[in-house]
Amino acid sequence: MTDDTPPSAEWRNFYGRIHGKTLRPAQKVYLSEDLASLRPAGVTREDNPARDPIDPAGIFGDDRPIWLEIGFGGGEHLVHMAARYPEIGIVGCEPFVNGVAMLLGKIRQAGVTNLAVHPGDARDLMEVLPDASVAKAFLNYPDPWPKRRHHRRRFVTQDHLRSLARVMQPGAEFRVATDIPDYVRQTLKEVPQAGFDLVGEGGVAWGDWLSTRYEQKALREGRVPHYVTFRRR
Ligand SMILES: C[S@@+](CC[C@H](N)C(=O)[O-])C[C@H]1O[C@@H](n2cnc3c(N)ncnc32)[C@H](O)[C@@H]1O
């Protein structure tokens, strides 16, 4: 997106590229064979133009707790969490098709059956989830948008955070990992305003954390991870 992009285009486009490197043949197979059965129904505008709330029990076929990962990248944290917590259903959102294809390969390899995938904008999913339907949410290394004039595109702004707060259960945990000091600043300011209490923050990761691809790159480049935990009021 350029600086001249009109504001009306931001809803659809704030996450930048959707396609990257050419998909490997195996990845094309994962997308055509596996994605349809993993994606929750009623999330896209085409599927649900009236934006009626979906039934969360329909996602995994039972009333297990549902967790949400926003922008899973290559899916390593998502698959790790699914394997570690088989009794939970985790829904991952990622508009970048190469990331979705990587995740599908990892799902095949790990054999986990408690994941669902929305291959698109997390906001579309949050919009159709009922109130208080999510028991935990992860925002790992959200796009930093380093330029000041782009800060309003960051996920940690009131529009996105209020949608997230609405779908989270009282007491539910919300985790944010970032390597950008100004993103930490904005997170600590904005997230509490949207209805969350700060539980903890610092340089020590959660006990069940799995370092993501983006984090590995950040570490190689000398940036310092920061982990922040909130609880929905
Ligand atoms: C910096 S990457 C981090 C990826 C991964 N979480 C990791 O730690 O390696 C940020 C990711 O967020 C995704 N993203 C950006 N906006 C999004 C949105 N509105 N909904 C879902 N994912 C989004 C991007 O496509 C990208 O893959």
TrEMBL record:
Keyword annotations: Methyltransferase, S-adenosyl-L-methionine, Transferase, tRNA processing
Residues the entry annotates as binding S-adenosyl-L-methionine: 69, 94, 121, 143
Residues holding substrate: 147, 179, 212-215
PROSITE patterns attached to this UniProt entry: SAM_MT_TRMB (PS51625)
Entry's Gene Ontology molecular function annotations: tRNA (guanine(46)-N7)-methyltransferase activity
Reaction equations catalysed: guanosine(46) in tRNA + S-adenosyl-L-methionine = N(7)-methylguanosine(46) in tRNA + S-adenosyl-L-homocysteine
CDD domains documented for this protein: AdoMet_MTases
Domain of life per record: Bacteria
Pathway: tRNA modification; N(7)-methylguanine-tRNA biosynthesis
Enzyme class, spelled out: transferase
GO cellular component: tRNA methyltransferase complex
UniProt EC number: 2.1.1.33
Function: Catalyzes the formation of N(7)-methylguanine at position 46 (m7G46) in tRNA.
Family: Belongs to the class I-like SAM-binding methyltransferase superfamily. TrmB family.
PANTHER family cross-referenced by the UniProt entry: 3-DEOXY-D-MANNO-OCTULOSONIC-ACID TRANSFERASE/TRNA GUANINE-N 7 - -METHYLTRANSFERASE, PENTACOTRIPEPTIDE-REPEAT REGION OF PRORP DOMAIN-CONTAINING PROTEIN
Protein name: tRNA (guanine-N(7)-)-methyltransferase
Source organism (scientific name): Albidovulum denitrificans
